[in-house]
Amino acid sequence: MPAILDARSLQTSTLDAPVCIVGGGPMGLSVSVRLSELGIDHIVLESGGREPGDNQDLAGGENIGQEYEDLVTTRIRALGGTTHIWGGHCKPLRPEDFLPRAHIPNSGWPITFEEFAKHIGGACELVGLENKWRAADYGDFSAWLDPEAGFFDFEAFKLSQMNHNPSQWAKGDFFTANRSRIGARILTHATARRLLFDEAGRVAAVECAGGEDRPLQVRAKIFVVACGGIETARFLLINKRLAGGPLSALPALGRYFMEHPQVVTGQALLPPSLPEYFFGVREPNGEVNQMRFFLKDRMQRQHGLPSTMFELLRPETGGQGPADRVARLGAAAPIRSGIFAKPEQAPLPDRYVALSRERTDRLGDPVTQLHYFADASAHASLQETTRLFARELGLQGIGLARLTMGPPGEPAGGKDSNVGWQRHHMGTTRMGTDPATAVVDDQCRVFGVPNLYIGGTSVFPTGGCVNPTMNAIALCLRLASHIGSSLNA
Predict the structure, then answer these.
(1) Which end of the chain is more exposed for a tag (fewer CB within 10 A), N or C?
(2) How many Cα neighbours within 13 Å face the side chain of 158?
(3) CATH number of the domain bearing residue 66
């Protein structure tokens, strides 16, 4: 069990441990779980408190370019991180997401899908899911679908029992659900501000804002920064500006920001007898399973389209939950459904996180400046993918669909009543082989800094079309195993 300490009341100005983790959200805590299993002493630094509220203002910032959500609302500073408001949506990245694709600029991971997939089972365990994703694991859908004939793969998509719907599992945030697995010293109200480098270019300590006018230093052999796709970049950019050193040789730091636009692209008329799994069923163990449609890799390459996921939205049922039957509108009357799309967003260097030159937070550090835009080509690609999906529904005999997207002047991810964002912040410290275009190597180690690692969605070279949290947890388990091997070497 963890020892939770309030940094504001510590009677010391220095602490030591073999490993220091900056960030007490699901990524930092996943590293902690694995290190605890390996018996490695470590410290976790969390800027907020046990519950959301304290220091949340430090997550604010500026939006430059296209309208985007107020940054202070897009993530949570608290032990457990943004899983305090997480919807629990989970699906592993797909094999094609790891491959270079000519039509997706800057695509390709330096690790294989097979290497990544070794850790999905562990991630599933931490979010309370079974590691089963085939449609065949949940029923026989052959009466409705011929998977070989279509343009889309039909696979399971899950909602973790850790979301805030009633369940029989450990309802709550990631820390609450996994507290018994964590053996760390956790410091709350410890906002990391500075990396202190030695003469060899290694990180010697991290300096935190703790008590009144009394900074706290944590010294370690290895440091992991796991503060999310925006805050990790900001923290390193602040240190790059102040200390220079090896961070100055990383031009990609903060670049290649990615999101997941969510778009209602059409409407569908569906048979009333369509199985409930098309809309979502709560299983006896508490998880919710829904079958969703994923554009096949061959179709992506043939048509030059990004990875895209489609969901048939549950028809209006008077507020009934996922375990209830879809309302039948008569023996032959069709049911109406919205078509919900989540496309992959290409990693482009012109979408990026920077530091404000004018605004600082109350600690005196520059606030985040997010430069975000959605391009018209992404809108055109989504229209084409939706047309393929409409054809899929017709060819498979599932239903009839019509496109309702706006004109190209309203690009996907722009200001449109049918468009929103998933608050999935990815790519700003991307993984790669070249420090000119990446920030970390294939072990998530920062180029040029031998004892500094990054855990989380910021290391994704591409984001695919699925939710990133469980996938980032898998990468963090992999990272922690590597750290354990390094310390024991």
Answers:
(1) C
(2) 25
(3) 3.50.50.60
Residue 192 belongs to a domain: yes
| 420 belongs to a structural domain | no
Q: What would the mean pLDDT of 135-154 be, rounded to a whole number?
A: 90
Model pTM score: 0.93
Domain that holds residue 66: 1-98+109-125+172-254+427-489
Q: Express each pLDDT in 302-319 by its tens digit.
A: 999 999 999 999 886 433
Average pLDDT over residues 456-465: 98
